[in-house]
Amino acid sequence: MRVDLFDFDLPEERIALRPALPRESARLLHVPPEGALGDRHVGDLPSLLRAGDVLVFNDTKVIPARLNGERRREGLPDGQGVAQIEATLHMRLDAGRWKAFLRPAKRVSEGDRIVFRGEDGSTLAADVEERGEGGETTLRFECAGPDLDAAIALVGHLPLPPYIASKRPEDEQDRADYQTIYARHEGAVAAPTAGLHFTPALFEAIRAAGVTFEYVTLHVGAGTFLPVKADDTSAHKMHQEFGTIDPDTAARLAAARDEGRRIVAVGTTSLRVLESAAASGRIEPFHAATDIFITPGYRFRAVDALLTNFHLPRSTLFMLVSAFSGLQRMQDAYAHAIETGYRFYSYGDACLLERPKAET
C-alpha cells in the first residue's frame, strides 16, 4: 500500500509534553466497529470492558538508553581525531553487546572505540563491532551482564521520544512519568505508552468489573520512532524487538479465547507480541525476536480489542491501528480527535478500538 494513505496533518499544539494528572483523567476515544465514536476518559474503562475480558500488559521496563560520548583516533591533526557521538541502544544481542543507532554515524568506523560519559564523570567504553544501514551499529562494551546494566544506568539518559526531546530537556519527573507502574523486565528504549495511563486505583476498579490481567514482554526498540521513508509499505524494513510469553501465560490466553472471552491488548507492543505468538492460529509460548509488520489486510489471530495512544502520521503504528479498525474508520477517528482537542503521542490521550467478534 502507498504510505501516503496513512498521512494526516497534526497541529503542533496537539503534541502532549506531559501526561495528564491523575493518569486516568486522560481522554479516551471509544471506537466501536461501527456507529458513533464515544468521548470518554481512561477512568471509564471499567464500564467499557466486559466481565471475562483479559487485559494484556507489556511489562517491559525502560532503561536510560541514550548515551553521549567521544570517538577518538590517534595520529590525526588537532581536533580531527575527536568526534562527539550520541548512541541510542535499541536491542540487546547478548550479555555484552547491543545494537544501537549512532549520530552522526558517518563519523564512526568498525574498530573505533567510543567512551561514553555520565554527568557524574563515570565512563563506559564500547568498540564498534559492525556497522549496518541507517546508522545502526553493533557495540561491544567493555563489561557485560549486571556490570554493564549498572554502568548504563550511570552514564545513560532517558530516551524521550524526539517529538518531546526537541521541545524540552529530560528531567527528573520523566523518570516516573515515562514508566508504567507494572514495569518489571529491563530492556526497553521506549515506554509501552498505553500502559502509562494505569494507576493502582484504576487496576482495582477494572478487577472489580470482572476483568483479569496477564503480562507479556516486548522490549520496545528505538525503531518505533523511525519514520517510514519508503513510498510503499512493501519496501519498509521493520527493526526487530525481543518478546516473551511464558508457557503458563500462553495457555491461559489460549483457554480464554477458546471460552469466547475477549483478549484486550494494552498497547500496540502487547498486540505485536501476541500476534507473533499466534502465527499458528493459537497463542503459543514465545521467546524470540519479532519484526512483525501489520498493515491493512492482516488477519488478526489473537486480539479482539486494543487500547492505544494516538500515533504519528505515516508511521507503522498508524498502519497497525488502520489494519485493526479499518483505514477510513481510523482516519475519521483521528480527524475527530484533532478537531475536539485530544492530546497525541506518548504522553497523550488514548483510544479503545474494538473489532467485530466474527472477524477474529
How would you characterize this protein structure?
The chain is α/β, with parallel strands linked by helices. Helices cover 22% and strands 27% of the residues. The chain has helices spanning 45-48, 145-155, 162-165, 172-177, 200-208, 247-258, 268-277, 316-325, 327-339; strands at residues 27-31, 38-41, 54-58, 60-62, 66-72, 82-92, 97-103, 113-117, 123-131, 136-141, 185-188, 212-218, 241-245, 263-266, 286-290, 305-309, 350-354. A hairpin with a 4-residue loop joins strand 6 (82-92) and strand 7 (97-103). The two termini are 23 Å apart.
Strand order of the largest sheet: 2-1-17-16-14-3-12-13-15
Structural class: alpha/beta
Distance between the termini: 23 Å
Order of SSEs: EEHEEEEEEEEHHHEHEEHEHEEHHE
> How many strand segments?
17
What is the typical, i.e. mean, pLDDT?
A: 94
Mind describing the biggest β-sheet? Answer: 9 strands, mixed
Q: Number of helical runs?
A: 9
Q: What integer value in Å does the Rg equal?
A: 21 Å
Proportion of residues in β-strands: 25-35%
* Estimated helix fraction: 10-25%
Low-confidence stretches: none
Could you give the topology of this structure?
Elements: E1 27-31, E2 38-41, H1 45-48, E3 54-58, E4 60-62, E5 66-72, E6 82-92, E7 97-103, E8 113-117, E9 123-131, E10 136-141, H2 145-155, H3 162-165, H4 172-177, E11 185-188, H5 200-208, E12 212-218, E13 241-245, H6 247-258, E14 263-266, H7 268-277, E15 286-290, E16 305-309, H8 316-325, H9 327-339, E17 350-354
Helix pairs in contact: 8-9
